[in-house]
Amino acid sequence: MAMRSAMHHAGATALSELLQFPVPAAGQRSISCSCGHQAGYQELRSKPVLTAVGEVTISRPYYLCPHCHRGQFPADVELDIAHTEFSPAVRRMQAVVGQEAAFDHGRQQMKLLADLEVTTKAVERTAEGIGEDIAARQQAEIQRAMQLDLPIIVGEPIPVLYAQVDGTGVPVVKKETVGRQGKTEGQPAHTREAKLGCVFTQTTWDNEGYAIRDPDSTTYVGAIETAEEFGKRIYLEAWNRGWSRAIIKVFMGDGSEWIWNIAERHFPGAIQIVDLFHARQHLWDLARKLYPNQEAEQRRWMMVHQDLLDEGKIEELVAALRAIDSPIWSWPTRFGSRPDISKTTRSACATPNSAANTYSWARASSKPDARP
Predict the structure, then answer these.
(1) 206: three-class secondary structure by DSSP
(2) Which end of the chain is more exposed for a tag (fewer CB within 10 A), N or C?
């Protein structure tokens, strides 16, 4: 610690010397102002700036426009410290620690790892400010994409390219849920749905025929926004990853209607797959409806039907599920009315076929309710 502090002190002293700007020469004492007039040099002004080696003092020329009375510090713009007392390196540090955990924890990390003293509020403001800048740039890219103003992504054909979408509830502060209905009727919401998406490639299969995601091929997007807005976001990411060059295009989801709406609007022609985890989950939901409070019967039913799912016999599975509603299947009257399976039948499902290294898939007759 003592060695690091000494090195920081020496570095800050040297950097302060380098950041002492001279008085402008006689021919450089006026600069253009945004109002169209000329701003004149007034004096040298100093301000402290926290850098990666500690606090330094910068002295730079100050210009003032006599017409609009707007002041300028050209050196601040050049050094990227305009309207801030943190260097670009320190702001990046604050953004990194601020997005990882609570802002106060980020403040502690700055002290522990870099020996820099910052306030919790400074971490919050910097992280959120950079986040807003990133979001604004992303929105500009998304709007260009929706106007078909997309760059042409050149390169080799991609054998198989996947886009996958899901959503999950995340806890938020109370003001973020004002006016939102919770999962329990009459109760306010305590979470917001974060929509997540990823794009990845796949070129190989394991010995059992299961597709293997290519290492380090996954890129991610995420946001708390409407399904319509998120559809544009995942579409842009897929396009940037080479969707137009993909030989086989696959869109994966959990069976929610809002996800298939994205697939149909932005990824027409793609193979639609309910991922295996959620497909199994839907089967369990159906088993519980068929045999309420009978865990042994549920497990027995699942042993048969999950095998069909895992082995890729989707057509047989779909036929078996549809047969549940047929007259040949007798529903025990002691359980009351027969269950409505339309709420749990998936829209599509795929599992690998090891013989052909392809996918066997079938579209079911109905889609589940949309996620709120």
Answers:
(1) coil
(2) N
Q: How confident is the model at residue 334 (pLDDT cuts 50, 70, 90)?
A: very low
Buried residues in 175-189 as b, exposed as e (16+ CB within 10 A): eebeeeeeeeeeeeb
Same domain, 212 and 265: yes
228 and 299, same domain (yes or no): yes
Could you say which of 116, 144, 172 is where a domain stops? Answer: 144
- Whether residues 197 and 343 share a domain: the answer is yes
179 and 327: one domain? yes
Smallest CA-to-CA distance from 76 within 21, 10, 131 is with 21
339 contacts 290 by C-beta, under 8 angstroms:
yes
Q: Are residues 6 and 116 in the same domain?
A: no
pTM recorded for the entire structure: 0.65
Task: Report if residue 152 sits inside a domain.
Answer: no
Long-range contacts of 5-10 (CB under 8 A, 24+ apart): 5/115, 7/53, 8/53, 8/54, 8/115, 9/54
Q: Which domain holds residue 47?
A: 2-22+31-85
The per-residue DSSP string of 132-173 comes to HHHHHHHHHHHHHHHTT------SSPEEEEEEEEEEEEEE--
What are the pLDDT digits (tens) for 100-133? Answer: 889 999 999 999 999 999 999 999 999 999 989 9
Asked whether the predicted pLDDT for residue 68 surpasses 80, the reply is yes
